[in-house]
Automatic annotation (TrEMBL):
MF-aspect GO terms: metal ion binding; NADH pyrophosphatase activity; RNA NAD-cap (NMN-forming) hydrolase activity
EC number of this enzyme: 3.6.1.22
Listed cofactors: Zn(2+); Mg(2+)
One GO BP: NADP+ catabolic process
Record-given protein name: NAD(+) diphosphatase
Entry keyword annotation includes ATP-binding: no
One protein family per Pfam: NUDIX
Catalytic activity: a 5'-end NAD(+)-phospho-ribonucleoside in mRNA + H2O = a 5'-end phospho-adenosine-phospho-ribonucleoside in mRNA + beta-nicotinamide D-ribonucleotide + 2 H(+)
CDD domains noted in UniProt: NUDIX_NADH_pyrophosphatase_Nudt13 (cd03429)
Record-annotated membrane-spanning stretches: none
Assigned GO CC terms: cytosol
Organism for this UniProt entry: Nocardia stercoris
Assigned protein family: Belongs to the Nudix hydrolase family. NudC subfamily.
Length: 307
C-alpha cells in the first residue's frame, strides 16, 4: 500500500476555540467584556506562566480599566473574553509551546489560545510599519489587523510551508537531520512555498534540493498552524525510489537515511527527542530519535507507522 491517511488530527489543529469574529469590529462589546475578561501574558520568547499544571490567566482589568492597544483579542471561553499581551517581566514557572504542548494535559481550547496568541503577538512585533506605504501602523479590531497612518489596513501574515513524508511504497521511510540539529534527531522533510509555486511543485522542488531525489504520487494529508514564528504546515506524503542516490545539494541537510517501519515504531515508542533514549542504529544507520507530538511531523510518522 503506497497511500495512507492521518490517524488523528495534529495536536495544534484541534482548535475548539470560539474566536468570536463578530466582536473584532464591535469595540463597544469588547469594552463591555473587558471587566470580566481573562488575560494571558506571554514574553518575547513565547513563554507563559504555569501554576502547577495549569495555565495562569490574570484579570484584564488589573492591566488597565479598558482594552489597551497592545492587547490582542483571542476569543470567548465559557462566556468570558480572553486577551493576550506581551510581558517582558514575566516570572515564575515559565514554559513555551514546544515544551508544554505535548507534555501537559491541556485541553484543545487552551492549546488554541496559546497558539493564536503566539501567532498574533509575533506578527505585531514585526508589523510596526506598513509594507505598502512605510508609515507607522496601529492595532485595530482587537489586534486582528493594523492600520497605517495613510489608511492602509494590513492583516496577520502566514508563511505556508510543506512537510512531506517520503516512503518507498513499502516498509521504508526517508528521514533527515538538519545540520543544526543535535545528533540522532531525525524528521521528515519540509520547506517554504515560493512565490508562484503550487504546493505539489514545492514538495517536488524541496525534496530535490534537500536530498537530491525525485518523488511521485504526492498526496495531501492535513495541516497544522506552526506559529514559530508564523507558518502554516501543510502535510504531504510521496513515494520515491530508495535506490536513487541521495545528494545534499543545498547544504541544509547533514545526513539522511532510509529507516524501516520497525525502526520508526521503536523510536515512537521510546518517546520524543530529549524525553527518551534514542533507538540504537542498525545496518550502519545512526541512533534514531523523532520529534515530539507538538509537531505535525510526529502525527504523520505515527500514521505511516500504524499501516
Amino acid at each position: 500500500m503506497s497511500g495512507f491517511q492521518l490517524k488523528t488530527v495534529p495536536l495544534l489543529s484541534r482548535s475548539a476555540l470560539d474566536r468570536a469574529e463578530e466582536l473584532r469590529s464591535d469595540e463597544a462589546a469588547r469594552r463591555a467584556g473587558w471587566g470580566q475578561a481573562r488575560l494571558l501574558r506571554m514574553n518575547r520568547r513565547g513563554q507563559i506562566r504555569l501554576a502547577g499544571s495549569e495555565l495562569v490567566f490574570d484579570a484584564a482589568v488589573d492591566l488597565a480599566p479598558e482594552p489597551v492597544p497592545s492587547a490582542v483579542f483571542l476569543g470567548v471561553v465559557e462566556g468570558s473574553h480572553v486577551w493576550a499581551v506581551r510581558d517582558e517581566e514575566l516570572s515564575g514557572n515559565l514554559v513555551d509551546l514546544r515544551s508544554f504542548g505535548a507534555a501537559l494535559p491541556f485541553d484543545d481550547v487552551v492549546l488554541s489560545l496559546v497558539t493564536t496568541a503566539l501567532a498574533l503577538l509575533n506578527w505585531h512585533d514585526r508589523a510596526g510599519f506598513s509594507a505598502t506605504d512605510g508609515t507607522p501602523t496601529m492595532p485595530v479590531k482587537g489586534g486582528w489587523s493594523r492600520m497605517s497612518e495613510a489608511g492602509h489596513e494590513e492583516f496577520p501574515r502566514l508563511d505556508p510551508a510543506v512537510i512531506c513524508l517520503v516512503h518507498d511504497g513499502g516498509e521504508r521511510v526517508l528521514l533527515a537531520r538538519q545540520q543544526v540539529w543535535p545528533q540522532g534527531l531525525f524528521s521528515i522533510l519540509a520547506g517554504f512555498v515560493e512565490a508562484g509555486e503550487s504546493l505539489e511543485r514545492c514538495v517536488e522542488r524541496e525534496i530535490k534540493e534537500e536530498v537530491g531525489i525525485d518523488v511521485r504520487e504526492i498526496t495531501y494529508l492535513g495541516s497544522q498552524p506552526w506559529p514559530l514564528p508564523r507558518s502554516l504546515m501543510l502535510g504531504f506524503a510521496a513515494v520515491a525510489d530508495p535506490e536513487q542516490p541521495l545528494a545534499f545539494t543545498d547544504g541544509e541537510i547533514g545526513e539522511a537515511y532510509w529507516f524501516t517501519r520497525a525502526e520508526v515504531r521503536a523510536a515512537l515508542a521510546a518517546g520524543a527527542w530529549g524525553q527518551g533514549e534514542p533507538v540504537a542504529g542498525v545496518d550502519g544507520r545512526p541512533a534514531l530519535s523523532l520529534p515530539g507530538s507538538i509537531s505535525i511531523a510526529r502525527t504523520i510518522l505515527e500514521s505511516w507507522a500504524a499501516e
